[in-house]
Structure formats: structure tokens, C-alpha cells
Automatic annotation (TrEMBL):
The name this protein goes by in its record: Glycine cleavage system T protein (Aminomethyltransferase)
Signal peptide: none
Protein keywords: Methyltransferase, Transferase
Record-level Gene Ontology MF annotations: methyltransferase activity
Superkingdom: Bacteria
InterPro entries assigned: GcvT/YgfZ/DmdA, GcvT/YgfZ_C, GCVT_N, TrmE/GcvT-like
UniProt xrefs under Pfam families: GCV_T
Length: 452
């Protein structure tokens, strides 16, 4: 149990003193796990989870007559049809077509947009002077909770006392929880049915407790930060800083912008894995991470020329890799026998909690001794009993059943070639959020649900 005096106040979720280990994120304590991590990772397949692990979410309001033009100029997405209260997963690139930012954008008015995780790139663009826009950094002033899994809608309807079946995928609407005005957005990273609850930071504790109480009879689990990070690989949704890095410091002007706003503190990432110290091997394009279908060539945007050429002849495509269990066991066997062990492999995830600076692990993928791709985001899938990762592979190899080799271990260490096979992508493909029809009576609110 963590001593209470060692835990700073977390404005986004009540601190649970019954949790053995907390992580610090931007000065806030958040549980690494609330209980048995296996129950937590199963929650988005069989029940539902609640997490505040994304707080404080980088939230930026962009408004003004040129707000839509700024987003269109720098997003691969087509934005001609973007109604109020709709959301888009925006992807922004540099001239080489490499991803520099991606996140959710909600249109809250004709000339006003809320962006999540598009900072600092979107704030840099807003301050460039090229657009008639106003930017407002809301980070720390708002909360974002995720409620995900097959029972997530039931949890939210119990907490609000409302029928929320009308909220379509990538749409939001206003409601109330614990007497507080909030918005519910149908989106999530779990792969299954999922929602987000957004509201003012001062209401966060009351809303969190109400969601937890409403979900308790439905088997709601609280999700720790490590388990939250695990779901992206299994569900086929690559993340910046986990599966790829942003080429921010390849742009000299943007690098100066970042450095000035950090007070001169250098940005540090511990580059791990057989990909070595060259950060450029860890950059990705939308095509390489499975987002080529989002690109719309109906407008000019940063990186269009490079991406148009790549769409015509893709170099690499996304794939799930399942690692050979005997080769994985050999890694752990080296820790229990004499001789030089292989580099340590955390069982659950390549991003162990509390590591500072945060490691970014990328490994070379080989075929017949030649480099054919990059693997990252390795996790253990308890659902499928597999060690898996996501890989950007040469296009002709990103086919289910293809056999490759992952070179495990930092250069200069005792590396190990681990056999792997291309599995289905995404590995978790049961009841995807965008496909679930919640209009039926089986999703109707339970009689007598308490109002929010």
C-alpha cells in the first residue's frame, strides 16, 4: 500500500490508497494497476472499464474564421462534411508524409473546434500568424474519462438516467452525470464498444465516483495505466511514443518552438531495441500504420505529394506479429541460467511503469537475413495467450501466415532472433465500435435507472 503522504492530490480521479503502486504523470498519481491486471485487460472484451489514465489530456480549442482551413491544410482527412458535434481522427504530417500529430477533433461550433492530443503541433500552427484563429490551451482545465467494453453503454445510461443509444460512432451529445454538465462521445481505443466522457476538471471526482458506482453492479473494472497502454497493440490502433515516434526535431523551426516552451529542458527518449539509436527508423507514415484509407486527395495538405505517391505504391503496411513461444521462453530461460542473459523483457509490455526517461522499443524485422520492417509495441495478450507486436512490413510480406524474424535486444547486447508469424490485423476484431448497432432493445436503459 502506498503511504498517503507520498501521493499528491490528483484533480482528475480520486486517489485509491488501497493500490500498491502508483505512477506519476505530469505531477499526478495514478494507479499502475487497481487489482489483478488480467481482469483489467479482459474488461474491454467481456464487460467494461473506466479509466482516467489519459489525464491531463492535451486539449486545445481552435476558433476563428480560418480554423477549418488550418485543420484542412494540415490534415490528410477530408473535412468538407464535418457537422457540429461530430468528431474526426485527424492525422497531420510533415512534407515527407510522416506523422507529426494525430488525435481526436470535435467540431463544437461553426468556427470552433476542440482538439485532443494534437498539441503541440496544432498550437504551433495557430501561433504561426498564417491563419485568423485564436487558440486556447484547456489542458488541466477539463477531464476525459474512457468507458469501454460491451457493457459501456449500460454503465453510462445507469450513470445518466438517459437513453444514449442515439449517439452514433464519432458523435457526441450533452448530458449530466452527478448533476454536472458533460459530453459523451462515442469513440475509444479499446476496439470494442467505447465512449468518452468530457467535462470541467472541477467536476471530475464527482463524475468518476458516479460512473464507478453506476458500473459496479455491471462488473465495471477500473483500468490501470499499464493495462491501458496494452490495448492499442491488441486492437490494432498504433500510438505515437509507443509504436512510432514523431519527427518533431527534424523541423528546425518547430524544434525551437518546443525548446522555448520547455524552458530549455531537453526532450529525452530512451531509444531501445535492435532498431538502434537512429530515430528516423521509428518515424511512420499514415499508410505504414494502417491509416491509408483515411487519406483524402480532394484537397491540398501538408505531405500530400509524398502520400499520393505512397498510396500508389505502398512500401510498407501494418501487420500483427505473433512471437514464437519457445523463442520467448528462451529469453526468460537466460535469466535463470549461467551466462550472459538477454536484455530484460518485461512480461506485459515494452513500456514498463515508472521508467524515466520513457523507453521507446523498436526492433528490426528480418526475412532471410534482410531487414523487411520494424516491430514495436510488444505486449502479452492474455486473451489470446500470445506475445504480440505491431510491425510495419514490406508490403508483399504483410500477409497472414508470413514467417519472419524479430531481432530482440539492443545493439551490443546478447541479441536473440525470435521467430514470428503475421497474424490477423487487428488481432482483437470482436464487436468493433464502429460496427456495433446499439439501437436494439437489448441496449435499452434498465428500468428505474437513477438520473444523473
Amino acid at each position: 500500500m502506498t503511504p498517503a503522504e507520498n501521493l499528491p492530490y490528483n484533480p482528475f480521479a480520486p486517489v485509491d490508497l488501497g493500490v500498491a503502486r502508483h505512477e506519476m504523470l505530469f505531477g499526478n498519481a495514478y494507479p499502475e494497476a487497481f487489482g489483478d491486471w488480467r481482469d483489467e485487460v479482459m474488461s474491454w472484451k467481456t464487460g467494461a472499464y473506466l479509466t482516467a489514465a489519459l489525464n491531463p489530456t492535451l486539449t486545445f480549442r481552435l476558433s476563428g474564421p480560418d480554423a477549418l482551413r488550418l485543420l484542412s491544410d494540415h490534415s490528410v482527412n477530408g473535412l468538407t462534411r464535418f457537422p457540429v458535434d461530430a468528431a474526426r481522427h485527424l492525422i497531420m504530417c510533415n512534407p515527407a508524409g510522416q506523422i507529426v500529430a494525430h488525435g481526436i477533433c470535435v467540431r463544437e461550433g461553426e468556427e470552433s473546434f476542440l482538439t485532443y492530443w494534437l498539441m503541440p503541433w496544432v498550437s504551433y500552427l495557430a501561433e504561426s500568424g498564417r491563419y485568423r484563429v485564436t487558440g486556447e490551451n484547456l489542458t488541466g482545465r477539463v477531464f476525459l474519462f474512457q468507458v469501454a467494453g460491451p457493457r459501456s453503454l449500460a454503465v453510462l445510461q445507469a450513470a445518466t438516467g438517459e437513453d444514449l443509444r442515439d449517439i452514433r460512432f464519432l458523435r457526441r451529445r450533452a448530458t449530466r452525470i452527478a448533476g454536472c454538465a458533460v459530453h459523451v462521445l462515442r469513440v475509444g481505443m479499446a476496439g470494442s464498444l467505447a465512449y468518452e466522457v468530457h467535462g470541467p476538471a472541477e467536476a471530475a471526482h464527482a463524475v468518476y465516483r458516479t460512473l464507478l458506482a453506476a458500473g459496479s453492479p455491471l462488473g465495471l473494472r477500473q483500468l490501470g495505466r499499464t493495462q491501458y497502454r496494452m490495448n492499442h497493440t491488441e486492437n490494432g490502433f498504433p500510438q505515437g511514443h509507443v509504436h512510432f515516434l514523431y519527427p518533431w526535431f527534424e523541423d528546425a523551426d518547430f524544434a525551437r518552438y518546443l525548446t522555448a516552451r520547455s524552458g530549455g529542458t531537453p526532450f529525452k527518449t530512451d531509444l531501445r531495441g535492435s532498431a538502434g539509436p537512429d530515430p528516423s527508423l521509428r518515424y511512420r507514415t499514415p499508410v505504414e500504420v494502417g491509416w491509408g484509407h483515411v487519406i483524402r486527395l480532394d484537397h491540398d495538405f501538408m505531405g500530400r505529394q509524398a502520400l499520393e505517391a505512397e498510396l500508389a505504391a505502398p512500401r510498407r503496411l501494418i501487420a500483427t506479429l505473433t512471437w514464437n513461444p519457445e523463442d520467448v521462453l528462451d529469453i526468460y530461460r537466460s535469466y535463470l541460467t549461467e551466462g550472459t542473459p538477454h536484455p530484460f523483457m518485461d512480461f506485459r509490455i515494452d513500456m514498463p511503469p515508472l521508467a524515466q526517461p520513457a523507453p521507446h522499443v523498436s526492433d528490426l524485422v528480418l526475412k532471410d537475413g534482410n531487414v523487411v520492417g520494424i516491430s514495436s509495441g510488444r505486449v502479452y495478450s492474455y486473451r489470446y495467450r500470445k506475445m504480440i507486436s505491431l510491425a510495419s512490413l514490406d508490403a508483399g510480406l504483410a500477409v497472414q501466415g508470413t514467417e519472419v524474424v524479430v531481432l530482440w535486444g539492443d545493439p551490443g547486447t546478447r541479441q536473440r532472433e525470435i521467430r514470428a508469424v503475421v497474424d490477423r490485423y487487428p488481432l482483437f476484431d470482436e464487436g468493433r465500435n464502429e460496427d456495433v448497432d446499439v439501437s436494439g432493445p437489448e441496449f435499452a436503459p434498465s428500468a428505474g435507472a437513477a438520473p444523473g
